[in-house]
Amino acid sequence: MEATEVVLVADVGKSRCRVELRSGGELLGAADQHGFPGVHVDNGPTLAFELLLETVSLLPPGLPVSTLTGIGAAVAGVEASAEKSQELATMLARRFSVPAAVLSDATAAQLGALQGAPGTTLIVGTGAVAFRFDEAGVLHRADGWGPYLGDRGSGRWIGQQGLQAVLESHDGGPATSLTAAAGALVESPEMLPGWLAANENPYRAMARFAPLVLHAAEAGDAVAHDIIGEACRILTHTVKLASGGERSSSPRVAMLGGVVGSEFFAALLRKSLASAGIEVVAPLGDGLDGAALAATRRGLIQERYIHRDGTNWPD
């Protein structure tokens, strides 16, 4: 591969920061570490910039970082502050002396999943959001409103519902094997509120209980199965909203995120979506692939949602 094809791509999220050095379709090296609160917070651009540089320093030695021709960074919090996102793009461009593109992690996921084409992507991780870019490049979004007001059907939501079911069972409600699963966290269900409050990130802590809910549901626990069924119904509704509801005659969606990595859950969700007339298509890539696309191509239909440094681009 020619050195002129080397690009740096990053996914700077709230839980993880991942960087990859790529040359065309070849992965030259990768590194990852902790995440950060988001570029929209006080001093957010500097926090993201320093974290990204620190993660780049963890790449294996001897890689051609000095021959970069572009940077694409999918960053948490971009949708909340265009000004700070632009600032981060400028900081990256100045540091590496190459064009830089900064975009939201959800936009990057949609770009990667559909390789720049219009369409809908459902992302189900700790949070949940459906993104659709129409033919004109206009964004249509459903949910993704955070743990207080949204992210329904997400890993956090599933885990929270599971923990609530444990407490309800403790109070005399339906028995569930989730009580035994929660025993790995606390000695008694009465201790769950204190355990959660002591967590630095309670939403991530609840999301980590989601795989146990999925396992219990797959094993036949009725309470857990009801939670998963409701999550599928909620996510199907989210996709319908993002897809334009009845205005979209044959909606299609690509699914990404850790929760849909469960074959059991993905199968139930595909069935729920199919019952609503929504076809599931295989994603062509992920958020890092979307960041790479933003770094190497201009004129995408999503351009208005990509923050570029404004320098070094060819005419």
From TrEMBL:
Q: Where are the transmembrane segments?
A: none
Q: Which GO terms describe its molecular function?
A: glucosamine kinase activity
Residue ranges constituting the ATPase BadF/BadG/BcrA/BcrD type domain according to the UniProt record: 66-295
SUPFAM superfamilies to which the protein is assigned, alphabetical: Actin-like ATPase domain
Which enzyme class, named as a word? Answer: transferase
Keyword annotations of the record: Kinase, Transferase
Please, which domain of life does this record's source organism belong to? Bacteria
> EC no.?
2.7.1.8
**PANTHER family per the record?**
N-ACETYL-D-GLUCOSAMINE KINASE
What is this protein's record name?
A: Glucosamine kinase
Q: Which organism is it from?
A: Arthrobacter bambusae
Task: Tell me the lineage of the source organism.
Answer: Bacteria, Bacillati, Actinomycetota, Actinomycetes, Micrococcales
